[in-house]
Amino acid sequence: MSGMLLANLSRVGDLCTQIKTVVTKILFVNVATYKAVLALQNLLPSHLERSLINEPFVLETRFRGIQGYEKVVNGHWTLQDHATGRDISRHSHREGAFLPG
Questions:
Q1: What is 3-20 written as a DSSP string?
Q2: Apex CA 74: angle with CA 73 and CA 75, to 5°?
Q3: pLDDT digit string, tens, across residues 10-65
Q4: CA-CA-CA-CA torsion for 60, 66, 68, 73, nearest 10 degrees?
Q5: What is the distance, to the nearest Å, from the Cα of residue 19 to the centroid of all Cα atoms in its chain?
Q6: Rounded distance, CA 37 to CA 78, Å?
Q7: Rounded to an integer, what is the distance from CA 55 to the centroid of its chain?
Q8: What phi, psi does 84 have (nearest 5°)?
Q9: Which of 10, 67, 79, 92 has CB 3.0 to 4.6 Å from 88, enough for a Cys bridge?
């Protein structure tokens, strides 16, 4: 009986060693993934290259020479939120009305 108990304890010890090895590998992969994400994050620009705040709308220029130009020049246009279908007020602050991307 004691031999059987020692054999079972030996198997438990082997399983613990295998679990430790697997957990160490998982931890290594997680740390490597984290470092890769940080490296990619550092490569991305911290702001939009052409933000709406720094560069005003060019609606008139884009419509010049095509149908609808007169409506744009006369201010008969509206911006619409694509997700909700609601109009965006021209009187709202641009910072609050638009998000990067």
A1: HHHHHHHHHHHHHHHHHH
A2: 90
A3: 899 999 999 999 999 999 999 999 999 988 887 876 655 555 445 556 677 888 88
A4: 30
A5: 34
A6: 39
A7: 23
A8: -105, -20
A9: 79
Highest mean pLDDT among 21-35, 68-82, 87-101: 21-35
79: Cβ–Cβ under 8 A, 6 or more apart, which residues? 87, 88, 90, 97
Query: What pLDDT does residue 30 have?
Result: 96
Q: Residue type for 37, please?
A: V
What's the DSSP call for residue 44?
Answer: S
Tokens of 28: 């290594």
Name the token pair of 62. Answer: 């884009």
Q: Which amino acid is at 88?
A: I
- pLDDT, position 91: 73
Residue type, 13: G
Q: Measure CA of the first residue to CA of the last residue in the chain; give whole Å.
A: 70
